[in-house]
């Protein structure tokens, strides 16, 4: 393929605006997949994606398209829309020259539309605005055009109006890709320079690296070197994703495809790495900003004998998702485990779900925490901490106030887009979350864009749910990292009959300790089954109790309903009760169902 007939592009949008559906239509139009009535989000291959109806992992597909007698190769990279996965988006963009910015004709510009646009803009990509869902009864493409002009400064006549669902006008999207996105700037005569922009792990074939070739050619049998590790490999297979792997003889500069080269160890295929030919070293391509975890949680096997299985599952999964950071950790109560860093709570849930579904692992997760910092008073520099300013990703290691001159908490710049009628309520919500307003603009007659500086810990868990429910689902939210600010923080323990619950140790703002402690106790009360004795649930700061709830004693007799002598039924019930016990964790003498902790975190 001549380079001038290649286009590399991505589809970006707010969640649910129709990226994956548009990708389906493009795959059909180019004959990549058969046109049937049930092609639904074919690029969403993961089980969790299908269940949640969201795209988690970017996917690549190479499309062949004939236009005015010329054949084009269009490499499409579908991306996730949710804020937690914006790292995937920026990675995908590094392999592209242009994007389709999809906006729902009914909902208009939303918070992630703005965030994703700026990622593309900063990467200096051509942006093609596509207004989707024009078939909807309440579609108002004219209004969306005006928003696009106002917020992104893109003339309204550049917008393409389509219905991805019905296929209306989708052909002109392909036309625009060819006309408005430039071919990649590459040199095939130069020695190989390939960017690893994604990688997946296959149990049988090892690492499958997704590569974009900036220079040169790579063929099966070539010896290649990783610029990152300096290790040499022999290429076993190259090919394009169509969207399933289709082996080819070679990959040329300008192409996007996959490469298998016997990389087995999870650390070998670093995303952002440059590959070159043996004895022909090149300047590595600029890598990526490494993903910055926003939320940390401890992860432990339910049963310590499962440690090694869980370890290998975590390693494999982190290869598929290099934005998760992993440190070994251990706890007296929970044994050996890890402290994992995630981009957000959804990311954490998805990771957990993938562990359970794809690797059949069962884990205990501790309360998520944001990365706090503490500046230690130098006179009392404590041996266990090497530096003056430390980052605390484990609340159990939160240093006492007597050793600290200042605590710091991470902050983010949040964008809220909402119909005007909810502005008042939203401002109150933001205030309750200790946020500071930075900006407010109307993006059309009755839609407002608000900017707030939020402490990260105030939005990590449930801000989004609260925002959605008080705006009847109409407000959207996105945020970016904005550094640190001073904060008065305290460590809070939750006790069950006097024993600390390791899963629930948490760091909170001083002013919020009382209300957060009370809420956790109340929620824990609701999710604890009654036991043979009374259970005291307490929240404490140091030795000071700040909240308390009690669960009354109760004898649960599973056989009570079984009158008569049906022995098999009795056995079944007893067996079921025994199985139920397996999912319990014992804290002191109290049995806690494993999912109680998750419930405590979620419903606020
Ligand atoms: P993504 O999250 O951006 O990938 O969005 P999806 O492609 O998964 O689409 C989200 C929802 O919008 C799905 O229920 C689609 O069927 C629906 N949808 C996508 N495009 C259209 C369209 O043109 N018209 C209508 N009415 N619905 C659409
Ligand atoms: Mg999708």
TrEMBL record:
Q: Which UniProt keywords apply?
A: GTP-binding, Hydrolase, Membrane, Mitochondrion, Mitochondrion inner membrane, Nucleotide-binding, Protein biosynthesis
Amino-acid biosynthesis keyword on record: no
Q: Which PROSITE patterns match?
A: G_TR_1, G_TR_2
Q: Name the NCBIfam families on file.
A: lepA, small_GTP
Q: Kindly give the SUPFAM superfamilies that the UniProt entry links to this protein.
A: EF-G C-terminal domain-like (SSF54980), P-loop containing nucleoside triphosphate hydrolases (SSF52540), Translation proteins (SSF50447)
Q: How does it sit in the membrane?
A: Peripheral membrane protein
Q: Which GO terms describe its cellular component?
A: mitochondrial inner membrane; mitochondrial matrix
Reaction equation(s) it catalyzes: GTP + H2O = GDP + phosphate + H(+)
What's the protein name?
GTP-binding protein GUF1 like protein
